[in-house]
Structures are given as structure tokens and as C-alpha cells.
Amino acid sequence: MKGRLSVKHLLGIKDLSSEDLELIFKTADNFKSILNAPIKKVPSLRDITIVNLFFENSTRTRVSFELAEKRLSADVINFSSSSSSVSKGETLLDTVNNLLAMKVDMVVMRHPAPGACQFLSKHIPAILVNAGDGTHEHPTQALLDAFTLRHYWNGQLEGKKIAIVGDIRHSRVAFSDLLLFKKLGASVRVCGPGTLIPPDMQSTGCEVSYDLDDTLDWCDAVIMLRIQLERQETAYIPSLRDYSIGYSLTLDRLNKLGKSIPILHPGPINRGVEITSEVADSSQSLILNQVENGVAIRMAVLYLLAGVPGS
Amino acid sequence: MERRELLDTSKLSLTLNRLCSQLEETYGNFDNTVILGLQPRGVRFAKRIHNLLQNLHPTIEIPFGELDVTFFRDDFRRNEAPLVASENRINFLLEKKRVILADDVLYTGRTIRAAMDAMLSFGRPAEVRLLILVDRSRKRELPVQADFAGIKVDTLDNEKVLVEWAEQFGRDSIRIENRTTK
User: Fold this and answer.
1) Upper half-sphere CA count for residue A252 (Cβ side, 13 Å)
2) Contact A38 B70 (CB under 8 A)
3) Would you call the peptide bond into B40 cis, given omega within 30 degrees of 0 as the criterion?
4) Which residues face B83 on adjacent strands?
5) A2 vs B contacts (CB less than 8 Å)
């Protein structure tokens, strides 16, 4: 059986069909079994060069992509804007074209501007993978979130209720998660203070709540998001302390539920703000499973995109 | 499409039993032996051989695994799209073991080359032997030969060998299909 994605680049969840999603999850399952073998490397991408182009800080995503690329035997170049000619005023397109002139086949890019990947995909011949573009999309994070929940629920998200809690306004993860969970047949509710929830949220087909306890009672799984202080040019919340009183996931809140729900967080976690340490480190927390699954998901995406000849 | 039967159920059963007898004659004991079926189509054949051997040696457990070679193939980016991988199911190490690698059809030898690479992810075996049900001997592209072969056939490029098992198709048989005949 041949497996070809309907897209040439991975720019966002919105471009993926249900067949694409199944193919990515199935391929990631196989990479997950490879990652559990004593030797965790396959030779598939040995004639492919990938540049990781990070115009924003990242630990997890960059390391996860780099590991995925190395496990697939690709040649990897890491680029960060702070130590590059971007700081001398070079445009995005010039930077990328200079890199491509050195025969790079794939570009994994994180950029603070929403739509930066979309723009680049129209101007360069290489395969692009979006590793987060501003507050727009973070498709591989959403894929690994869904992949983690699929494993937890033995393969199905259909009919499940998933809550996304926190800074929805500034979160690309929330937007990609929302699109993906809806495509997989789950119900989604976003929850947070009114200032951190965009006004048109209901139009995306999700529920909106401002009450964390009610939301926890409703959901089968919860994804906690961090407060993105670096994206807040205006004061959206009175203080972190005030926020944590209303929206911190604490053991007390979980104990009141009378059910056990899986807890996800895309990281980095702010212990004591959106989640307490005892919850983050509890057996209900799938945070480290997410990190582990991230490598398998990224291997699957890179493998499937690179596998089409002439791409 | 023209089809002809190479082995019917009873002859296929004889062939499987003969392969087992050959393994028995060559090795005698299977204490340090594992059987790996190649995903997807070699697994059912490997399972049959494993069952027969296990019945002959009820006091020991012969480890059985399923190996997928998709990510080790040499035709990545040379087909219109990559093949969809199957699952690896190997919950033991191959270090210092005798590995019997089993596949239903041996043709170009490229799958077996990939399997040798894929297998090494699970340790360095003491020895590896190749067990094949149908050896299409005329079209080898790599220096790969079966140590144990059920049946050897000369086939044309436009012919396909179909190994069908009762679990899937209701009866065991091996057929050759000519893909160009109208």
C-alpha cells in the first residue's frame, strides 16, 4: 500500500484530510516502535539535507525535530536568527534562498509572524514544515497531542470531550489542536479568562467557558496552556497570582472530580501558575509521553513529505 | 487475467512439513533460535512454520517476531509515494541468537537486504538463515539465496506469485497470475 499525503508542505492542520491524518498516525506508530528498539535509527532520509530555521526561541520543538531528523539519517543544519545575518537586516526570503543555494531539501521553520510559512512556500522549491508561526498554527504539536490521546484511548478520539485551558488568544497550539480534534470527531471546549479568549471563538465550532471547575467536570481530557508573557503587549490578566487562583490545575480541583482525566501540556510548564508541581508530576500527567511521541510524529511527517520523488 | 495453481492445499501442507523437517534435520534443537516473519506477507508463512516447530518441541518456547523493513528499503523517493509501513513486533533481543528469517516469496532479493539491516536494530545475531516458501529464482538483483526453499519457480516479469492462506482466503494455495493476459 502506498502512502502519499495530499499536501507538499506541512503548513497547518487545516490543509490535512482525514486520510492524511490516519497515514501520519499509522506511520508514527511504526516509528514509535523503532524508537523503542535498541538501535533507534533508520536510513530513509540519508540523501536529504534539512535546515531547522528558528526565528524564535525553542527547546522542545527544535530538539525534537533535530532528533527526528537524525533518527531518519538526514543531514541537519541548525540556524537561529540571533546569531545570523538576520540581525544584520537580511530578509526572510534572502536568508532562505541563500541556504537553499547550498542544496538544502527541506526547511523546518519557526517564525513569529503568522503565515510566514505560507508565504515562504510560495517562493521556494524546498519542502516546508511549520514548527510554529506566531499565534497561527503549530501543526506537529497538535498531531503529537492527538497521537498521545489516541494511545491513551486505544485509537479513537471520536466522541471524546477535550478541554483546552489557558491563554487561548496567543496560543498557536490551541488553534491547531482545536482544528485537529474537530477533524477527528472530538468535542472541544476552550476555557480561560475572557481577556485571553478571542471574541469569535464560537464560530470555530467549539464551546467557550470561563469556569475551570465546570470545564474539568465536562471534559474527558484537559490540555493546559502556559501564559505567554512574551506575547502580551497589553495586560490581559491582573497578575499571575490572580490567574492561578482561577485557572491553575491543582490536586484539590482534580480530587473533587470523581474521575481520572489525562492531563497534557505542550510545555514549557510554569509550575505554580497554570499547573501545580504535584499535578504535573502525577500519574495522570501525559506531559512526558507527549515529548516522547513528538519525535515519532515528526519522523512520520518528515518521512512522508520527503518520500515523494521530485519534491 | 490468467491464473494457474502452483500448489494446492495438500501439497502446500506437505511443503510446510518438509521445510520443518529440513530445519529439524539441520539444527536438531531450537534452544537459541528465533523466527522472524517479514511484514506484511511473510508473517503468516513464518507463523505456520513456527507452529509446526513448536508442536515438535513443546517443552521450549521458540521466540517469534514480526519484522517490518519499510524504512530500510533502497527505493525510498524512487516510487511515486513511500510504502505504508507495518508494525514491528519483536519483544526480545537478537544478540547472539540464531535467526531464521522467513518470507513468502524471494524475488529480487532487495527486501531481504533491507531485512538484514532492519534486523540489526535488535542486536547482532550469531547467525542468520533465510527460509523462503516460493523462490522466484530467475530475477535476482542482489547476491541473496535462500537456505531453505519450499518451491523454486521460473516466472516472467509480468507474472505475480500469490500466496494465500486459509485465515484470509478460506483455503491455502499458491497461484501464479499473469497480469498482461486479457
Assistant:
1) 5
2) no
3) yes
4) A2
5) 79-84
Q: Do the chains contact at B122 and A27, CB–CB below 8 Å?
A: no
Please tell me which residue of chain B has the smallest CA distance to A4.
B81
CA B114 to chain A, closest CA, distance in angstroms equals: 10
B84 min Cα distance to partner chain A (Å): 5
Residues 102-121 of B with CB under 8 A from A: 117, 120-121
pLDDT digits over B59-102, tens only?
A: 999 999 999 999 999 988 888 888 888 889 999 999 999 999 99
How would you label A172-208 residue by residue, b for 16+ Cβ within 10 Å and e otherwise?
bbbbbbbbbbbbbebbbbbbbbeebbeeebeeeebeb
CA separation for the pair B86, B79 (Å, rounded) = 18
pLDDT in tens, B21-55: 999 999 988 999 999 999 999 999 999 999 999 99
Residues of B in contact with A308 (CB under 8 A): 77, 80-82
Q: What is the pTM of this model?
A: 0.90
Q: Distance (Å, rounded) from C-alpha B148 to C-alpha B102?
A: 9
A82-137 pLDDT per residue, tens: 766 666 777 888 888 888 888 899 999 999 999 999 999 998 889 999 999 988 99
The contacts of residue A8 (CB under 8 Å, 6+ apart) are A121, A127, A305, A308, A311
Percentage of chain B modeled with pLDDT above 70? 98
Which residues in A lie closer than 8 A to residue B122 (C-beta atoms)?
37-39
Name the DSSP class of A243.
Answer: H
CB-closest option in B76, B85, B120 to A27: B85
Number of A/B CB contacts below 8 angstroms equals 75
Asked if B81 has any chain A CB less than 8 Å from its own CB, the reply is: yes
Strand-by-strand arrangement of the A207-209 sheet: A207-209, A187-191, A161-165, A221-224, A263-264
Q: Is A86 exposed, middle or buried (0-12, 13-18, 19+ CB in 10 A)?
A: middle
Integer Cα distance of B19 and B49 in angstroms: 8
For residues B164 and B175, the answer to whether their CB atoms sit within 8 Å is yes
